[in-house]
Amino acid sequence: MTLIHDLAWIALVGIAATAVLDLWLTGLRRLGVRSLDMALLGRWVGHLAHGRFAHAAIGKSVPVKAERALGWVTHYAVGVAFAGLLFTVLGREWTRAPTLLPAVVVGVGTVLAPLFVMQPAMGAGMASSRTPTPLKSSLRSVVNHGVFGVGLYAAAAVIAWFAR
């Protein structure tokens, strides 16, 4: 494989795994479970561009232009970056015969980013500690990232099947 093939694999797996997560979140929303509003993610990223990392409450911060679109682009870019992490950790050999457990472990490991970087920076506190139900919110994040891990595996498995 060449670098271009590796990058294509990372992009496809990241996009597909993020789409699996989004399908999961859509199902949860239909059941009345709230999830991150992509406009707020875009708002946070938009403020990063102006040097502001932390907010008391991102929902009360000044909106930024095209924040919802920026949030969705960021969401998928992060999914691709996490697929790059998977590729880096497990290597090219794993991509030829992917297995579920390592992908789920990497997927669940990615929950560290929202729990300890994004949520505190958006005003929710470490591991949602400033929300009404921190344990419930944190466990939901762990499960969601586990679903992302399943998406990483599923996408890698489909690509490996087509590559045969």
Describe the structure.
The chain has 164 residues and is mostly helical. It has one domain (3-163). 73% of the residues lie in helices and 0% in strands.
Q: What is the topology?
A:
Blueprint: H1 3-30, H2 38-48, H3 67-96, H4 100-109, H5 112-122, H6 134-163
Rg measurement, Å = 16 Å
Proportion of residues in extended strands: under 5%
Instruction: Report the structural category.
Output: mainly alpha
The number of helical segments is 6
What's the quick description here?
This protein is mainly α and 164 residues long. It has one domain.
Features:
164 residues; mainly alpha; 6 helices; globular
